[in-house]
UniProtKB/TrEMBL annotation:
One of its GO terms (molecular function) is symporter activity. Residues 464-687 form the Solute-binding protein family 3/N-terminal domain. Keywords: Membrane, Signal, Transmembrane, Transmembrane helix, Transport. The keyword Signal applies. This is ABC transporter substrate-binding protein. The chain crosses the membrane at residues 32-52, 64-86, 124-142, 163-184, 196-223, 235-256, 276-303, 315-335, 355-378, 390-410. It is found in: Membrane. It is a multi-pass membrane protein.
Amino acid sequence: MLWALLLGVATGLIFGERVAFLQPIGTGFVKLMQITIFPYIVVSLIVGLGKFNPEQVKSILVKAATVMVTLWVVGLAAIWCFTLTLPKHDAGTFFSPALISPATSIDFVAQYIPDNPFASLAEGNVPAIVIFCIALGMSLIANKRKSQVLDFLEVVGQGLTVISKKIIAIFPIGIFAMTASTAGTLSVEQLHNLQVYWVLVLCLGLYLMLVLLPMLVAAATPIKYRDLIYVMRNAWITAFSTGNVFIVLPVITEGIKAHMRKISRNDEQSDHIAEVLVPIAYTFPSLGKLTTLIFVMFAAWLTGNPVSFSDIPNVTLSAMLSYFANVHIAIPFLLDSLRIPADSYQLYLSMSVLSAKVVSPTTVVYIFAFVLLSIFYCRKQLHFKRLRSAYYVILPCALLPAFMATSFTLNSHLASGSKAANDVIDNMVVSDQVPAHVLSHVPQAYQSGELSLTNIDVIKKRNLLRVGYVVDNVPFSYFNQKDELVGFDISLAHKLANDLNVEVEFIPFQKHQLNEYLNKGYFDIAMSGLEINVADLTKVRFSQKVLELQLAILAKDYELSRFKTVELIRGVDTLNFAHMEYAPLLNRVHERNARIHFKQLSNLQDYFKSPEQFDGLVISAEAGFAWSMFYPEFGVVVPEGGMPKYPIGFAVAKRNLDLLSYVDAWLAIQQTNGSIEDAYNYWILGLGTQQKETRWSVLDDVIQQSSK
């Protein structure tokens, strides 16, 4: 299988995206391997348990549980040690809708109680299947007629083993196809975005599967380190190539049984123990699964909110409980529990192809270690020869700092050379622009008196749409690195002008000037993330809702914990918040709680110039996250228990009903055709801010370039 792996990597690097067509072939082989898996789990568990007597089962399960807990403790200690290798990093990130979503809950009952075993088999619910098979196998232990059923199932198991061996014989074709397509299509962008996580999980995985786990087995059993590596090689390579542990469970079981025969330590009991414990080890949280906990720590670090030491016990307990479910349930749950934007999970999915190359082999080594240690413990053959055992205990302890130092050194270098978050938002541009004039103040000519009534005919006749904007209102209207006026509302203003077939002129204003400037006709329409509030309804006319935003608090990272809940905020003696909008709402809050004070600013930049004057800034979560990319030492929190949402829209003068009618109809069209959603995804969520580049390949970038 090793040759297929190496040949696949070479093919992918040479031909690049041309070998993407091999992916379905690899997927087909994975499904082929899965043909026997569920029947194999059912048969092996029932037969393995059914052949024991009651005293043996109790002893085996207790001793296996002891081994499992021991490996968890040792493995989690190593995982937490590697989280210390994350370098210092301040970062901001785009808004995440998951921040305001309901907390993820895990239905452990549905996961582990097989109310319908056949449905569990059909749905691939492995934990429920294992629980059912354990219950059925144990119920057969005292049954005097069990041999009739067990003999039949044993024959079925032998048949399944033959099928698995036949498939494994041709599986190198699948390994070649999957490896070639992965190596050929994995983008450099994916590697660049998560290179710190990749280094972290690679160093951790190599330490667990090459040092800690096999050396623990070598220290406590007669099995030599080199022999264990040799026994694991086929399952290891298959798991690495496919990123799938499930399909190699029969290979692990047969490998353990074959090696026990080779060293003359096998008997019927050890074979049954292997058959029972392999699927159990897969069902319960493995150290392979737990290595993905490092991604949660990485995501917290990436968003500038690293997990503190005081959080470690709670995170560890939550992780152990959640990993009893599927990894793809556990990670979003942990992200949510730590208030990390859950769309960080998309980063995990984008990297899952690579991380599975470490997580799956680590799981294989863990299952080998767990089962072998349990077998020798049950046989009372664990041994600790003074010199050899001391060597294999001391060596992992000595190598741990070396692996950690390697991880820290590499990640410090990568983090120092990575692109800053503000570089992304500061280089965003408006596409499909119309000719535009951006003014820094209201022209003197506009201030000579009230301008005429503005309607669609007037705008088209003058060939100019005048748009009011708020300066430095990220991400709705702001100047990028090239001093271009950009943002969510600015992009819509260009689109509106384009549909009117006119040019656009942008005129600045401050929030308190909105009513005056509109009704004096200084501009036709205001488009700058404007809150639609009751107090302004009698002064100007608002369009229909463009977006709905979530009110939040922006503050220094170390201060965010003070504002996690409304109850915590109410318990503080005195608080001083800055704000630019929301005056009616905040005045009511002050009336109900005189200890909370609010000061209105004319420009959001004023807050960042002197943040020490305030405890925080009341702002939308969407805008707060964008500002945190410019000022990564700040973070955003939505206090639990009462922070409302509010609508934003465009504003026109009270008399401009013709323009308002047109804008409302235009917005309805944009909502329907997806233009508003596209603008939201780009300016608020940050999707599509990096262009996809063609995948590098030897054929395109070396051979063809040299031939030119």
